[in-house]
Amino acid sequence: MNVEINNKELSDKSTPSDNNEESDNRIFDDSKLAKLNGIKTQGLNPYPYTFEKSDDISDILEKFEDFEKNEGLIVRTAGRLYNIRRMGKMIFADLGDQAGRIQILLRKGNPPDEEFDTFKKLIDSGDIVGIQGVLFKTQRGENSISVSEFSLLSKSLCALPEKFHGLKDVETRYRKRYLDLIFNVEKRDIFVMRSKLISEIRRFLTERRFLEFETPVLQTVYGGANARPFITHHNFLEQNLFLRIAPELYLKRLVVGGYEKVFEICKNFRNEDIDTTHNPEFTMIEVYEAYSDYNDMMDLTESLVTEITLTLKGSYEVKMGERTINLRPPWKRISMEDALKEYAGLDVFAHSFEELKKIAIENRIEDYEKAKTRGEFLSVLFEGLVEDKLINPTFIYDFPVENSPLAKSHREKPGFVERFELFINGWEMANGYSELNDPLEQKKRFEDQDKKRKLGDLEAQTIDYDFINALGYGLPPTGGMGLGIDRLTMILAGQESIKEVILFPQMKKEE
Predict the structure, then answer these.
(1) Pair (194, 150) in one structural domain
(2) Counting beta carbons within 10 angstroms of the beta carbon of residue 391, is it exposed (0 to 12), middle (13 to 18) or buried (19 or more)?
(3) How deeply is 335 buried, as exposed, middle or buried, from its count of CB atoms within 10 A (0-12, 13-18, 19+)?
(4) For 212-230, how does the pLDDT look when each residue is reduced to its tens digit (9 = 90+)?
C-alpha cells in the first residue's frame, strides 16, 4: 500500500491553490485534499457506508475498573481522532466519541505494515475511524487500546483549529457549534444535560396525566404574550402569517374542547433584542390544568424545577460563577407590591405621580415614560429596582391588571390580577396565571391592548376574535404556566449567556 506523496502535499499548513476555487475560499485544507487523493489512489473508500461499533468508549473505560479481569479483552469502537503522536514504529492517538476519549496505539506489524503505513501517511487528527483491538495499560498506567484493525470512516478535509488547545474564540464557537462540540467536552455536556432536562419535564408531567400536544407555529393572529412578532407571507393563501410568540391561546382552546391537563414544549419567536438572556428563537414549556388557579401553578412549578434539579444535579445547590444558588423548597413567595417595599423601601401608593417619575429618573429607569397609572409604575419600578436582587428562587405574585391582559382579576384586590412570575438569579424564569375565562372581560382587555398597539406599542396584543368565541363556549377555571427551558438550562449548567445553552444561537451575518 505504498503511496507516493511529496512533502509539499503533506505540509501541515494550508496553501491556497490557484486552480481550486474551494481552496481559494479556504474551505478545505490542501494537505488533507492531497491525502484524500492518496487514499483514493489506493482504491480505498474514504467515506464508507457503515461500521459495526459494538462498544462505546465510556463502556470501554468502565472495563478498566476491573482491569485484571478484562486485560486483553477485544473491543470494537469508532470515533474522531485527536492529537496523533507518530513515533517511528509506533503511533499514539486519542480516540473520542460522544461519551468519552481513550488512547489508542498502533505498532508496525499490528496492524499489518500496509495498514500501519496508510495510517501514518494519510490519516490526520479530525478523521473518523473505526478500530478493533485489545485493552492494555501503558507503563505509565494509561488506559489504552492496542489496535489490530482500523478502518477510515470519514476523511476530514478541514484542519482542526488550535491542535493542542481546542477552540477558544467565543464568536467562532457560536457560529460553528460543530467545532465547539468537537473540542469542548464540557460544552457538549451542557447539551446532554439539556436533552435530559426536556426528557425529565415530559416524564414529570406525563406521570401526572398531562397530555402533550402540538399547536400551530404559523398563525393568522399572534397572541399569548406582549411581544413583537416575525411576519411572513403565504403565497397560496395570499395573506400574511406570524411566527408564534406563544402557544397559549391554542392550548386554552384545547381545554375548552375538553382536555383538562395539557402541555407543549415548543419553539417561540419574538422579534426582540438579543442579549445574554434573550434569543429571538427560544424554547419554553406551557402547561394548563383545568380546575386549578395560580396558587396550584406555583406549586406545580416549584415541584417540577426542584425535582428535575435534584435528578440532574444530585443537589439543590447550583453554581453561577462565584455565586451559589439554593433551589431547595419551599421557595419564597411575595406580592409585587410588598417586594418593592422590602427590596427598595418604596410604596407606590404613598407617592404622587410626579414623585414616582422623579424616583424613576434618579434610578435611570427609562421605561417610566410608558407608565400612566400607579399599576404601571409598580411594574416599571419593580423591574428596575427589585428584579436583579431576586437571586434564590422567588415567586412574585399579584400583578397590576394593566400589563396582564390574559390573567383573571384578583378575587380580593381590585386593580390586580392573579398572576405570578418566578425569578432565579435575577432572571424571569416562569410566568403563570389564574386564566381569564370571562369572554366579555377578555374582549375588553384585547380592545385595550389594541388601542395601545395602534398608538405605537409594537408589543401590545392583537384581538383574537376566534379565541374570544372559544371562551364563549366555556373555559373551566384554569391555571396556566410558561417556563423558559433555555434559562432553566442556564441555571442548572451555571452559564451566564443564553448562547451557551442554545446549539445554534442567532448571530449577525458575517460580512
Answers:
(1) no
(2) middle
(3) middle
(4) 999 999 999 999 999 999 9
Q: What percent of the chain has pLDDT over 70?
A: 94
Separation of alpha carbons 307 and 313, rounded Å = 10
> Do 132 and 197 belong to one domain?
no
Q: Are residues 212 and 317 in the same domain?
A: yes
Residue 197 pLDDT exceeds 50: yes
Please check whether residues 397 and 284 belong to one and the same domain. Answer: yes
Q: What is the CATH number of the domain that holds 56?
A: 2.40.50.140
The answer to whether position 64 is within a domain reads: yes
What confidence score (pLDDT) does residue 464 get? 96
Burial label, 371 (beta-carbon count in 10 A; 0-12, 13-18, 19+): buried
Burial class (CB in 10 A: 0-12, 13-18, 19+), 92: middle
Q: Rounded distance, CA 97 to CA 113, Å?
A: 27
Asked which of 160, 176, 197 is the last residue of a domain, the reply is 160
DSSP code string of 405-446: TTBPBPSSSTTEEEEEEEEETTEEEEEEEEB---HHHHHHHH
Query: How many folded domains does the chain comprise?
Result: 2
- pTM, two decimals, is 0.90
Q: What is the pLDDT of residues 56-114, one digit of tens each?
A: 999 999 999 999 999 999 999 999 999 999 999 999 999 999 989 999 999 999 999 99
Of 136, 152, 194, 186, residue with least CA distance to 44 = 152
The rounded distance, in Å, linking the Cα atoms of 493 and 497 is 11
Give the length of the chain: 511
Is the same domain home to 118 and 194? no
Letter string b/e over residues 311-322, b meaning 16 or more CB atoms within 10 A of that residue's CB: ebeeeeebebee
Question: Rounded to whole angstroms, how far apart are CA atoms 32 and 35?
Answer: 5
| Pairing relationship of beta strands 394-400 and 90-97 according to DSSP bridges | unpaired
How far apart CA 17 and CA 23 sit, in angstroms, is: 6
Whole domain around residue 114: which residue ranges?
Answer: 21-160
Q: How far apart are the C-alpha atoms of 375 and 408, rounded to whole Å? A: 16
What span, in angstroms and rounded, lies between the C-alpha atoms of 359 and 145? 69
